[in-house]
Design brief:
This protein is α+β, with helices and mostly antiparallel strands. It contains six helices and 18 strands.
Length: 300
Amino acid sequence: MKHAFLPLAALSLSLLGCGARAPLSRFSAEFNCPQSSVEMTDLGAHTYRVRGCGNQVVYVCTGNLCVTDRDEGSRHRRAAVARRQRSRSRVRLGEARGSRALRYTLDAARDLELLYSPANDARHVYARVAPGRGEACEALSLEGERADVTFEAARSPSHPLRISLDSLDGLRPVRFRACDQLVPLAAADARALAEFVRRAEHMRGQTRVTRAAAPAEEPAAPTASEGEAALRAWLESHREVILACAQAELVVVRARAAEDGAVVLSLAPPHEGSAEGCVRSALGSPPPLEAGADIAHAVR
């Protein structure tokens, strides 16, 4: 493969980005070599061969930071990885908590997933970072060409971050910042994210039309067996949150239904009090029960 040499004299520095100037500046300072005598070859995958004044060095650069590549052969492996990662994201339609949901997944230094389920929350897009890869990241922002947006904490055990769908419209994203890690978006990744936002907005519009067209009617009250089974399954799905709130290995949860079927949760001694507030806040509204139902469920 032939590489194009870039003599500095043939290029105006004003035409070079910060990433292209960095290896030239470092080489010139390191070898006391005038930049007018320096030649640079772009090897791809942010790797540059710089030569001049009888010296030659290969640099690997990230932004303005360049380090010496002591294993030049590794650039071929990096180039292959870069080609594979040109499109590292995907958008797919599935289900979440029994409702239609749209997911955007980015496989990069950290796995990142965005989730939009209008039946559960039509206003927000939920996110999680690094699921199953050590400690999850709880700070996430999306940087665009025109503005940056920051995700806020959410009360969802599976996707603990969220952002309004409207704030993603027209953002023209460039990169994610997950905790201390910067994840640049390739052109294909940015297009996939724009497609996610477009499809999410379409789903939100369909949800509004469906709700407006649906006749107002009272939902059927669940039978004792159906309601109890649904509630117990719901509590088990939040087992980790409940145990974390009570800081215990066994917690008995009481669920009492009022005449309208609304359910109030409480914890049996010795976990009543502040732990109850934590559980109610984290879990949200329980599934309805038959009026007057009183259920105790052990979570362990």
